[in-house]
Design brief:
It is a single chain. The chain is of the alpha/beta class and 443 residues long. The protein folds into 4 domains: 5-137, N-utilizing Substance Protein B Homolog, Chain A; 140-171, no CATH class; 176-233, 2-Layer Sandwich (Alpha-Beta Plaits), CATH 3.30.70; 236-439, Rossmann fold (3-Layer(aba) Sandwich). Helix content is 46%, strand content 15%. It contains 17 helices and 13 strands. Strands 5, 6, 7, 8, 9, 10, 11, 12 and 13 form a 9-stranded mixed sheet that branches. A hairpin with a 5-residue loop joins strand 2 (198-202) and strand 3. Helix 1 (5-20) runs antiparallel to helix 2 and helix 12 packs across helix 13. The protein is globular, with a radius of gyration of 23 Å. The chain starts with a helix and ends with a strand.
Length: 443
């Protein structure tokens, strides 16, 4: 029996993520780039199968263990992934044919070389399809989080906010664009997107558009809007970070950890041809990605540079009106886009990342000229990585808080934790994000 290509490709990605340590967003991007035969609908189906399985992984394994004689954790890796994919379709996708979901998982196991286990897989999935009453899982299983992370979120944010976060993280993430206002206006971008099968409407920020696709949509990266750099795919929280840092026409900007370049491009749009942006990152591959995005958007006021943000560069000292320090972090705020993060991050890693951030911040503050600003941001929600490093900037780095309260749109004001600090939790509007803005006073 032939397996639908969408299920086969989804299975390959799930296996790579669960058993080989791959990153789902990179595997999806590579698959879509290499398979020119995939329609936009095919891509959506594959993304749904991958994200849905990974987002619900703990609950899926709980259900597998309820009906299978062999627990999920003891199955052969490819068998386990095929069964997980089958369970996701049976338990979460109303429109999927039960027989197709079962047959495809059985065939995946056969093609993996396990003919002798096809009967087992068929039996487990058919039992699940017939079952009408299931055990009530513990809250942490329903949340699809490791025990320690669920406990921590409850302690930090309380039961209600954690429940809201979990609901968002285990569902589709918002898709937004930022219009390059020096290249186009939102109305023009909306019109061009419509011609390519994408519906766009204004989001919560002036240059932002929220997207949804139609059946006739072309791949987003092939739309006229993205191809010629009229807009950039960017989450609202990331757009808001640069907006609140408020670079002005003619400013010089340094972005220390810039790839793939969304914030650098936003800053370049705001400072105009009279200003300049130096976009840095650690590896040649990341800088090459920066250069590709800069070229596509046609900004001539950005330079990309390979540089290790942990190493102080005396040539940069006191030179910049704005330093963007959007730093490496645990990424808990983007678990909705990268669902495997929840199973890979640890409390030790969070502490290590907070120390790395401090190391970079010690350099970043020295690059800010008198009267200039520092944007310190992350895409996570932990105290060590966010508030505690903000306290260090206040107490030890000689920078003063910039009051951003009046500039924060109403939709985001619940996230204000200090006059210059915004802690956003994952929501229907945006990813989880931390934003803080600082100023070096004139001596």
């Amino acid at each position: 029996m032939a397996i639908a290509k969408t299920r086969k490709l989804a299975f390959d990605i799930i296996y790579a993520v669960c058993e080989e340590g791959a990153k789902s967003h990179l595997r999806l991007a590579d698959t879509f780039a290499s398979r020119k035969d995939l329609t936009v609908r095919d891509r959506a189906v594959i993304t749904n199968l991958v994200h849905g399985t990974l987002e619900n992984l703990r609950l899926i394994d709980f259900r597998i263990d309820e009906v299978a004689k062999l627990p999920a954790g003891k199955m052969k890796p490819k068998v386990r992934c095929a069964v997980r994919l089958g369970f996701y379709q049976l338990l979460f996708l109303d429109r999927t044919s039960e027989s197709a979901a079962i047959r495809s998982s059985v065939e995946l196991v056969r093609k993996a070389g396990y003919d002798g286990l096809t009967g087992f897989v068929n039996g487990v999935l058919r039992t699940a399809a017939r079952k009408t009453e299931w055990k009530k899982p513990p809250a942490v299983v329903t949340a699809n989080l490791p025990d320690w992370l669920h406990t921590r979120l409850l302690q930090d944010f309380g039961k209600k906010r954690t429940r809201e976060m979990v609901r968002v993280l285990n569902g589709p993430s918002p898709l937004t664009l930022r219009v390059n206002l020096s290249k186009a206006v939102p109305g023009t971008v909306i019109r061009f997107l419509d011609e390519d099968g994408w519906q766009a409407e204004p989001a919560a920020l002036p240059a932002a558009l929220r997207l949804s696709r139609t059946e006739a949509a072309v791949p987003l990266e092939k739309t006229a809007v993205i191809s010629v750099g009229l807009a950039v795919v960017q989450d609202l929280a990331a757009i808001l970070a640069v907006t609140l840092a408020a670079p002005k026409t003619g400013d010089t900007v340094l972005d220390l950890c810039a790839a793939p370049g969304g914030k650098s491009l936003h800053a370049a749009d705001l400072v105009g041809p009279e200003g300049s942006v130096l976009a840095c990152d650690l590896s040649e591959n990341k800088v090459r990605l920066l250069e590709e995005n800069i070229a596509r958007c046609g900004f001539e006021n950005i330079t990309a540079q390979t540089a290790d943000a942990r190493t102080f560069d005396p040539e940069k000292e006191g030179k910049f009106d704005l330093v963007i320090a959007d730093l490496p972090c645990s990424g808990l705020g983007v678990m909705g886009r990268k669902p495997e993060i929840r199973y890979r991050v640890s409390e030790k890693e969070i502490r290590d990342l907070a120390a790395l951030q401090r190391e970079i911040l010690q350099n970043a503050v020295r690059y800010v000229r008198p009267g200039g600003r520092l944007l310190f941001s992350t895409c996570t929600m932990t105290d060590e990585e966010n508030r505690m490093n903000a306290v260090w900037i206040l107490d030890e780095a000689g920078l003063a808080p910039v009051d951003i309260q009046a500039e924060v749109p109403e939709a985001f004001r619940d996230g204000l934790i200090a006059p210059n600090c915004l802690q956003l939790l994952p929501s229907a509007l945006s990813d989880g994000f931390f934003i803080s803005v600082w100023e070096r006073k004139n001596d």
